[in-house]
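Duplicate of #3305? Posting structure anyway:
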């Protein structure tokens, strides 16, 4: 498995979303008072929130650092969807997640989303993300055509496999982004300076931060 710090360093903020830093910080701070026991999703249903929690921990499980849900990435994603995503993005997220959970229900023989376990969800996530570069390029083209048609008020459909890929790929990006932005990871996993210090123009990251990416 790729080293967690290296994965975070390589991902950066290339998630396809643009959001002002004060807004992002506000969302992250609003997650601090929540706990798994008391968290009630604002955007998703409670059952979907349970699925979200399981999935973010499949993407970033507990290792030498906390799991994604332990630093409240699931809460962050729900708040981000509720407070930042545009209406069409929210509708797309809901639609794609529905296709994903439908597949997990069908494969597991279960009827209720709240009954889905990590063992039911993990193979669907892995399959959705296991594509060739050529397949991904075709799916991204389909997604673009779909979203453009919806924006123009036209009838549009997206096949189930592409919908599941869209959800899984988007969730993976949001999970890593939210994890990297969390207070714990920002201070304990990434290189962190509470107050900017000495400016060193010619030095590599290994020398300056022992290879760690800078915290936001």
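Output from current build:
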């Amino acid at each position: 498995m790729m080293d967690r710090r290296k994965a975070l360093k390589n991902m950066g903020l290339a998630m396809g979303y643009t959001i002002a830093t004060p807004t992002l910080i506000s969302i992250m701070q609003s997650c601090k008072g929540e706990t798994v026991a008391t968290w009630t999703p604002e955007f998703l249903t409670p059952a979907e929130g349970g699925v979200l929690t399981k999935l973010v921990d499949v993407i970033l499980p507990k290792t030498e650092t906390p799991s994604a849900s332990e630093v409240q990435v699931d809460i962050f994603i729900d708040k981000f969807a509720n407070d930042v995503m545009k209406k069409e993005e929210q509708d797309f997220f809901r639609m794609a997640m529905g296709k994903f959970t439908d597949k997990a229900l069908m494969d597991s023989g279960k009827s209720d989303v709240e009954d889905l376990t990590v063992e039911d969800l993990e193979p669907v996530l892995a399959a959705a993300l296991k594509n060739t570069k050529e397949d991904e390029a075709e799916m991204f083209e389909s997604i673009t055509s779909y979203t453009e048609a919806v924006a123009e008020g036209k009838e549009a459909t997206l096949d189930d496999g592409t919908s599941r890929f869209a959800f899984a790929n988007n969730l993976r990006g949001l999970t890593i982004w939210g994890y990297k932005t969390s207070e714990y990871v920002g201070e304990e996993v990434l290189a962190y300076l509470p107050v900017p210090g000495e400016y060193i123009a010619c030095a590599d990251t290994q020398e300056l931060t022992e290879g760690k990416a800078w915290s936001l």
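Confirmed duplicate; merging threads. The two ends are 25 Å apart (CA to CA). Residues 128 and 161 are 7 Å apart (CA to CA).
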